[in-house]
Structure formats: C-alpha cells, structure tokens
Amino acid sequence: MLLDPVLGLFSNDLAIDLGTANTLVYVKGKGIVLNEPSVVAVRRRDQGRSKILAIGKEAKTMLGRTPGDIIATRPMADGVIADFDITETMLRYFIRKVHNRRSLVRPRIIISVPSGVTQVEKRAVRESAESAGAREVFLIEEPMAAAIGADLPITEPTSNIIVDIGGGTTEVAVISLAGTVCSRSVRVGGDKMDEAILQHIKRKYNLLIGLQTAELIKITVGNAYPTDEPEYIEVKGRDLVTGIPKILTIDSEEVRKAISEKVETIIETVRIVLEQTPPELSADVVDKGIVLTGGGALLKNLDVLLREETRLPITITDDPITTVVLGAGKVLDNLSLLKEITVT
After folding, report:
1. What domains can be seen in the chain, in order of their start residue?
2. Is the pLDDT of residue 3 over 50?
3. Which of 78, 227, 281, 314 could, after both became Cys, cross-link 159 (CB 3.0–4.6 A)?
C-alpha cells in the first residue's frame, strides 16, 4: 500500500481531450502542455507486423502523401476509438512526451468522452489509457468538461446550455446542479464538413482534392451564414477527366452550400435539446443563451446563424479548441466535483 503515495509523488496528474482531430493534454499545475493532431503514421511490414513512424504533427503532414507501405491514420473516428492498438501507442507517446520520457511515472488521468458513447466504447478508452501507463482513469463527458472550461456555474440550479462541435461529434447538453438534464450527440462535426466540400468539388468540377485541402478551404472561406462580400480561394487538385493537376477558384457562397446539410444537422440537434429542456430551465436560457465550444465553433458566422434560428443569445468561448481540456484540468483540482461528474 505504500507504493501508491510514492507513485503519487512522481506523477503529475493529467487531463486529456482525446479528440478525433486533435489530442490536448493538460498537466496539473502547468496548464496545457500539448496540442497535437490525433494522427499516427505506420509502416506495414510482412506477416502483418507494423512499425510506428511518426505521431502527431509530423504524422499529419504525411496524410495523403504516403507510399503504399506507409499508412497515415487517425485512430479515433467519430469521437471514439477506431483502432485500439494505435490509440494506445499514441496515448503512451503523448504521456511520455509531457513527462519527459520518465517511464516510472504513472499519472491519474481524466479523459473526456462524447456523451453518446456506449459502455464498450468507454471501456476501450479506459483500457487504452491504463495500458498506456495510467494509474487511475476517470471519464468525464465532453459537454460537462466544456461547461467547466467555459466557467459556467454548473453546480447551481440554473440552465447551462453547451454546444461542443468537434472533429467527429457535436454534443449539445443542458447542465444544471452538476448533472446533465438532457443531451444529444450526433456524429457530425468538422470532418463531415471537410468530406462534404471534397465531394462537392469532385461532383461539380471533376476535380479530386485531399481532405487536408478541403479543411483549408473550410477554414479560409467557409461560413455558415452569408457575408456581405464573397471570399475566394484557389484550389489545386487532380482533374478526373484528364488526370492532370489543375487549379480552380471557388467562392465562400459555394462552400457554404456544400456544408449546409451538415450545419443544418447541428442546428436541428440544438432545436431537439431545446424542446426537451424543462420549462423552468428554458426560462433561464432566454437570458443566458447558448455557449459554443470546440473547433467547429470557429466556422465563420455559425453563431450568427444559430442566433437567427433560435432567437437566443449565442456566446463563443475565448479559445473554443482548448475549452474541453481546460475544464477537465480544473476538475483535477476539485476532487469532490470529480466524484460527482465522472461517468462509469
């Protein structure tokens, strides 16, 4: 029994936002120390063996640019683990990286998970963190972590509505008295928007582009609500008819139409949750409005569209990408709150 406190001296407890697009790590007492893409590059060998070549930023640069025997892959899909072994390797790498490769360290880890995950998916996250060297693993739902990160009064008997739009999932939740009153999770996020842009350009122009290019188009000229002046971007890809590389120019109007179906799914999810909200809490929403977090909240004019559709005040957190991991990090310092909000 003496061993645990000793390990506790060595361990810096961590909070991890294990996202489809990015993984963020918060170390107790230090803040956010890592923000890297959730990408792993693997070389496939004979007899089914494989060798990890790169993880994180370096691996992301390889996406769509690898020879046949190298695969750059995202081990997380739709907010949950798609490849158990590679996720475990990625987690171990990130944990070692933040602890400067001290293998003795066995930290306590809080990991945020989408609110709609199944028991099997929760177990997969827990087991991969334990295999990667965690002493204890606590799971916290992403909307709850986002609400804490956004400094909302979650322990009070008042309505806190959070919309967390990540790479793989969008989570909408009403939180009151440190519990989720009603929530909904849809597997639509930034990745599905990128895919929609890619498919639109392929259908309309017979031009094949990569997902990274589609993401760049979304970030540069994508919007959810019309702007006064259209913006333009040059797109490079391969002409599917001639097979020759080609450049074309597309505008923000076209990009908005390409992603409109995905954006509408997010709006509809918000509507459903608002309909399910008890009347007393609905009264609070009129004053307090809705808080947007997650990388998807950075889509231009998404807040304007939501305001137009719901007639409610919409706030975007200061840094939407880090809100969830900051919230999970704050819980590390508050053990009584941790016991209340962890999911089993």
Report:
1. 3-36+77-145+324-343 (3.30.420.40), 39-73 (no CATH), 149-188+260-317 (3.30.420.40), 190-258 (3.90.640.10)
2. no
3. 281
